[in-house]
């Protein structure tokens, strides 16, 4: 039964009894020899479905000479208590628990068969439940409301056997959560877990809701209970490890991982792989490498292990080693597609000589076509065409695109025409590019036609035909209202055309259709800069009510506080906003670059900067205006983009240091500090909904801030120059017509790649 009160706090996890020695070099030939965590070679098995043959299973019941770690010693018989999220929580349960989740044919107790029968449904029950699930999600049920849904559930419960009732409670809990009735949802989740405690899906959904609500301690208790009833379940283990990592409890996460020493590697490799990635994210490169070495030795038949080991070395700045790992993986798994594409990208990074690179790429593609799945052959030729284009071989690039079309399914050919159009554009062949885009539009499915029209509008804009670009986007907005990217491109087109009033109008219209899109709110906040900081804060406040977990919106809030001309210049508030930004949307690269700007302004310690770099490298951001501006070519790694951004910020902060110094001096004055803090606090009230009340009395008009004392010798500068972290980039956006072709192409297309 669900406990009426939380258990007493668990004791801290025991100290790790064995730490791995420093890895010598980056060789992947031998596994590490240590028990617990990192895993030992004793985990690898032979040929049965559990990965261990009969002799190996017998050997696992004998004491091992390997060292102990965390919960026990490799080779000791499996204890009868369930798995706990933290060491020391087993005793709170009392009594014996289920054993490890071996597959039924290798589980000597037969519990695996019993657990599977508990979760299975008869054909009649499955049909009744499926009909209920579809009806519950139908538009008719949504219109009739919660009472009708409850009646449906009661009828379904009457028709279904009691063993399946937990599934109905789970569906109703999900409905209550979507309707924001969290108390009712919590009650239903508890009923589901009580009726069927061995169903991991119920525990996972319950923990997910509590985590989304910010109740992290409840989430941890739910996961602990789930692991007691479903020990070693992969999804629960992964969720538990990620939760502990998020809470900063790395020792507890390692202790949880150490309990996998009792589980055969073919059942635990995904969780062990997550442990390797956890160590990499924590900056423990040597330990992460040892875990990858173990996995590549014990489970070489799993493609994701080789792929993640390759990416790990690439993130560490070792492209040659990453290439070697990928090549070794292809020897083991010659049909695993992701490794073939990884090798192609790594060749461009690892081989600086253009002739050698092109020769190696062509040989690799010819070899890959013979081994890779037929469904992926067209992608291989597509990637080869882009490599040839980047190396100045337009004729060979065209030939590769033709081969890609020949191997491609008809419904995917539009992607090849789109990629070919972008390649022709890089050589300023506008007419050929336009013809290819027209063919892509003719062959694209209706759902993807808006993407091709967006690409056509960019080409028209690059050629200076703004009206044609507007007409295409207007047509795309009508035919594909569900595609928010078309609406965003309409706003950006007007911004680049220096038509601020039209951009504001387009942004507001876009938000009427896509109110839950953070990028549209972010661009509206930025556009409101011309109306003053308090207009920006009002939009920021409204955006937080609509999309409170949008990293782009939080980043714009930080930019308001980082603008030296802003009445709300506040470095502490910017710090808090950027913490939210990288927490909610780590893929947004601009948040990390703005964070770098903040750290340079306050003179943060090197350890803090290094930690930010590590967070960014782990997140691998893939979009953002500043991010694309710093990523000059598609071949740059995250670390190289950060180096480019750091150099850009260092140069600009040196040029405009007097402006920032004047803003910091003004922010130190008590009157300015109190006014700025009040404005930021009012915006933050949006998180509780306090400022959304239309009947609330209007706030008093803010007092004019003290002037910003700038040196007389300073070149002309204004608030619009500091909308983002780069003054030069902000001015380029406002002067697009006076830029050269390559600069305009970089701003219009950014780092947006055509990917197969």
Brief digest:
The protein contains 37 helices and two strands. It is an all-alpha fold.
Helix-strand layout with pairing:
Elements lengths: L53 H7 L7 E2 L2 E2 L37 H9 L3 H14 L2 H6 L1 H14 L5 H14 L3 H14 L4 H13 L3 H14 L4 H13 L3 H9 L6 H17 L3 H14 L4 H13 L3 H14 L4 H14 L3 H18 L5 H14 L3 H14 L5 H14 L3 H14 L5 H14 L3 H14 L4 H13 L3 H14 L4 H10 L5 H14 L4 H12 L8 H14 L4 H14 L3 H14 L5 H6 L7 H18 L1 H11 L2 H15 L42 H8 L6 H9 L7
Antiparallel strand pairs: 1-2
Helix pairs in contact: 3-5, 3-6, 5-6, 6-7, 7-8, 8-9, 9-10, 10-11, 10-12, 12-13, 13-14, 14-15, 14-16, 15-16, 16-17, 16-18, 17-18, 18-19, 18-20, 19-20, 20-21, 21-22, 22-23, 22-24, 23-24, 24-25, 24-26, 25-26, 26-27, 26-28, 27-28, 27-35, 28-29, 28-30, 29-30, 30-31, 30-33
Explain this structure.
A two-stranded antiparallel sheet has the order 1-2. The chain is 63% helix and 1% strand. It is built from 37 helices and two strands. The longest helix is centred in the middle third of the chain and has 18 residues. The protein is globular, with a radius of gyration of 29 Å. It has 756 residues and is mostly helical.
């Amino acid at each position: 039964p669900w406990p009426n009160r939380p258990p007493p706090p668990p004791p801290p996890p025991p100290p790790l009894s064995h730490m791995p020695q420093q890895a010598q070099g980056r060789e992947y030939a031998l596994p590490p020899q240590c028990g617990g965590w990192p895993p030992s070679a004793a985990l690898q098995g032979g040929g049965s479905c559990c990965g261990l043959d009969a002799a190996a299973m017998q050997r696992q019941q004998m004491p091992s000479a390997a060292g102990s770690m965390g919960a026990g010693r490799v080779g000791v018989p499996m204890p009868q208590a369930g798995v706990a999220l933290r060491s020391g929580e087993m005793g709170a349960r009392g009594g014996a628990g289920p054993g490890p989740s071996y597959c039924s044919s290798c589980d000597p107790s037969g519990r695996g068969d019993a657990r599977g029968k508990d979760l299975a449904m008869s054909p009649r029950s499955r049909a009744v439940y499926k009909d209920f699930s579809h009806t519950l999600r139908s538009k008719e049920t949504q219109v009739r409301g919660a009472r009708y849904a409850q009646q449906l559930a009661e009828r379904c419960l009457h028709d279904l056997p009691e063993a399946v009732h937990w599934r109905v409670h789970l569906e109703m809990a999900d409905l209550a959560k979507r309707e924001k009735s969290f108390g009712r949802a919590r009650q239903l989740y508890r009923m589901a877990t009580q009726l069927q405690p061995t169903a991991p899906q119920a525990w996972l959904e319950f923990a997910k809701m509590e985590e989304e609500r910010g109740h992290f301690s409840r989430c941890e208790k739910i996961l602990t209970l789930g692991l007691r009833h479903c020990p070693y379940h992969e999804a629960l283990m992964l969720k538990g490890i990620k939760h502990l990592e998020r809470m900063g409890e790395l020792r507890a996460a390692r202790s949880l991982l150490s309990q996998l020493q009792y589980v055969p590697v073919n059942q635990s490799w995904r969780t062990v792989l997550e442990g390797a990635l956890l160590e990499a994210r924590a900056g423990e490169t040597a330990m992460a490498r040892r875990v990858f070495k173990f996995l590549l030795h014990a489970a070489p038949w799993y493609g994701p292990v080789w792929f993640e080991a390759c990416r790990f070395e690439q993130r560490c700045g070792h492209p040659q080693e990453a290439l070697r790992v990928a090549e070794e993986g292809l020897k083991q798994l010659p049909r695993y597609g992701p490794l073939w594409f990884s090798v192609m990208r790594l060749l461009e990074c690892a081989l600086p000589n253009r002739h050698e690179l092109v020769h190696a790429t062509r040989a690799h593609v010819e070899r890959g076509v013979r081994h890779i799945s037929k469904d992926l052959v067209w992608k291989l030729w597509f990637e080869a065409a882009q490599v040839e284009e980047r190396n100045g071989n337009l004729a060979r690039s065209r030939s590769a695109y033709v081969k890609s079309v020949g191997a491609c399914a008809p419904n995917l050919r539009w992607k090849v025409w789109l990629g070919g159009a972008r390649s022709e554009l890089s050589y300023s062949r506008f007419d050929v590019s336009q013809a290819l885009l027209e063919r892509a539009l003719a062959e694209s499915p209706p759902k993807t036609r808006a993407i091709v029209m967006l690409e056509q509008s960019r080409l028209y804009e690059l050629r200076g035909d703004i009206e044609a670009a507007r007409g295409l986007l207007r047509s795309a907005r009508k035919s594909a209202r569900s595609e928010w990217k078309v609406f965003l491109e309409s706003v950006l087109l007007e911004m680049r055309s220096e038509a601020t009033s039209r951009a504001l109008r387009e942004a507001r219209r876009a938000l009427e259709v896509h109110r839950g899109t953070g990028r549209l709110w972010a661009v509206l906040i930025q556009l409101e800069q011309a109306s003053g900081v308090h207009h920006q804060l009002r939009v920021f406040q409204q955006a937080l009510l609509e999309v409170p977990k949008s990293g782009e919106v939080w980043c714009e809030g930080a930019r308001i506080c980082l603008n030296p001309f802003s009445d709300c210049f506040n470095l502490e508030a910017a710090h808090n906003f950027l913490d939210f930004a990288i927490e909610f949307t780590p893929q947004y690269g601009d948040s990390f670059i703005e964070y770098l700007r903040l750290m340079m302004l306050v003179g943060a310690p090197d350890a803090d900067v290094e930690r930010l770099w590590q967070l960014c490298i782990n997140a691998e951001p893939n979009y953002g205006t500043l991010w694309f501006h710093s990523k000059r070519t598609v071949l740059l790694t995250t670390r190289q983009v950060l180096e480019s951004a750091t150099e850009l910020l260092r140069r600009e902060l040196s040029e405009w240091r007097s402006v920032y110094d004047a803003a910091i001096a003004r922010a130190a004055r008590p009157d300015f500090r109190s006014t700025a803090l009040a404005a930021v606090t009012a915006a933050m009230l949006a998180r509780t909904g306090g400022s959304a009340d239309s009947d609330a009395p209007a706030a008093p008009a803010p007092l004019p801030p003290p002037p910003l004392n700038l040196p007389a010798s300073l070149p002309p500068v204004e608030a619009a120059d500091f909308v983002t972290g780069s003054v030069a980039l902000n001015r380029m956006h406002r002067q697009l017509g006076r830029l050269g072709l390559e600069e305009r192409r970089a701003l219009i297309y950014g780092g947006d790649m055509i990917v197969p």
